Amino acid sequence: MSWITERTLNWLQSLALRIIKTGRVPSHVAFIMDGNRRFADKQNMEKKEGHSKGFEKLSETLHWCMDLGVTEVTVYAFSIENFKRSKKEVDELMDLARQKFKRLLEETDKLTDAGVCVRVIGNLSLVPEDIRKLIARAIFITKDNNKAFLNLAFSYTSRDELTHALKDIAKGIKHADILPEDVTEDLISDCLYTYKSSNPELLIRTSGEFRLSDFLMWQISNSCIYFTNVLWPEFSIWHFLSAVFYYQRCYSDLQRIRNNLKPIAHNSRASMFVKKLHREREIEIEKIYLSAVQS
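The structure corresponding to this sequence follows.
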């Protein structure tokens, strides 16, 4: 299935979306897309078919977000913990990832027309080399698009993200790029995988699980969190609009909290360290991309 699907809303759904759009719309929405395996069991199908249905739902949901005016979406595509599943299921998930990233590369013209920038956040060293190259190509080819941003958390957990951020900071101190007193919450935020993104305003988790599964734990401290019992492949426009309506009801409290947050203000030494770190990460992706196109 395509990453860029045709709009399929009926007149009633379109009307409901326009009504919700008259209120505050979150600029950044995150999704924990849970329930693919349970959906497969429910439908008596193979788990890989459940995961495939989950991708189809993601494609559909991205259109709802764009129609509503959400400019950034982050999805929990694959947790590092998922590597602990059976080899058969992990291999099937990796095969699905290959297929979908290849399809994404075939649709770069559509993504460019829509202005969609694809980012992948996570520990890519744990991913098979061929998938890592596909990811690097997707990131590099869409990096200049700026109308909408899709962040795919792939081979990701918050603990891994924080561990790598702290290692980078420790290395910066060791090399005298920064001093221990330069280490602040804001510096840590700028060393995370999500340094290019604002924090999500709304996090949606499907499948009736009331937990966060080590997803964006640092970033969602002031986010509105919405849990729904529906399995991810059965997630509908009505569930999505209900979540956004819930966010609108919570917005005044969220805004009061956000207004009390101080803006990031690094000193010049910390700013130079952050710029250097970000550039090193960009160069690493460029190297993988060049290796991919030359092979």
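DSSP finds ten helices and six strands in the chain.
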